[in-house]
Each structure stands twice: as C-alpha cells, then as structure tokens.
Design a protein that fits this description.
about 120 residues; c-terminal domain of poly(a) binding protein; rod-shaped
C-alpha cells in the first residue's frame, strides 16, 4: 500500500501562509519557515496592539482635556471629580472632542462644573 501524505491539505496550508506574507522583504516572502515565523510575530503584535490602541487613545483624550481645563484655570483631576459630583455623564472621548472642536461648549461645561 502506498504512503499517504495528504498533500493537498499541506500544500493549501503553506499556500495560505505564503499568500499572507506577500509584500514582505526578501526571504520573509519567499521561504515558508521564515514567512511563517514573521507572520506569527506580526499576528501577535496585532493582537497586543489592538488592546494597546485603546490605552493610547485614552491617554490622548486625557491630555487634551487636561490642556483645555488648565486654560480655564482648573486641573484635570478636579474637573473629572467635579463632573462626577454634578452628575454630568460625558465620557473622556466626548469631552476631548468638545475641547478640540467646540471650545465654547467645553467652556460652558467647565463653567457649569466650577459653580
């Protein structure tokens, strides 16, 4: 009885990896084992950085809110604390957008919080 290798399936697996590695430099797009290692590393970075992106955006929003509130004579932490006390339920993303694109509206919110 001849040896069975299931060549179609293993060829398809390699082909899938090589297709995903197109555009990479040198052996990273030509040699299967190198391409596989590169792709696995890239997929790991992509998974990690999908989480990290959320953190970095939050840091950006906080920096923008802090800059805008300091121009109104208030610190970020006091502003956020006062928002909670007043029951204003705007998140940091919305506040940062207001601070950047609608400064008069943001100033009104800061004034409402100060009083």
């Amino acid at each position: 009885m001849p040896r069975a290798t299931n060549n179609p399936a293993s060829r398809a697996r390699r082909k899938k990896i090589m297709k995903a590695a197109r555009g990479y430099f040198g052996a990273r797009s030509k040699v299967y084992t190198v391409a596989k290692n590169t792709l696995e590393k890239g997929w790991a970075y992509a998974f990690r950085d999908r989480k990290f992106k959320k953190r970095s955006y939050r840091r950006l929003w906080i920096a923008r809110i802090n800059a805008a509130t300091r121009m109104e004579g208030l610190s970020y932490s006091r502003f956020i604390h006062a928002l909670g006390e007043k029951g204003i339920g705007l998140n940091r993303k919305a506040l940062a957008d207001l601070a950047l694109n609608h400064p008069t509206t943001f100033k009104a919110i800061v004034d409402a919080v100060k009083n």
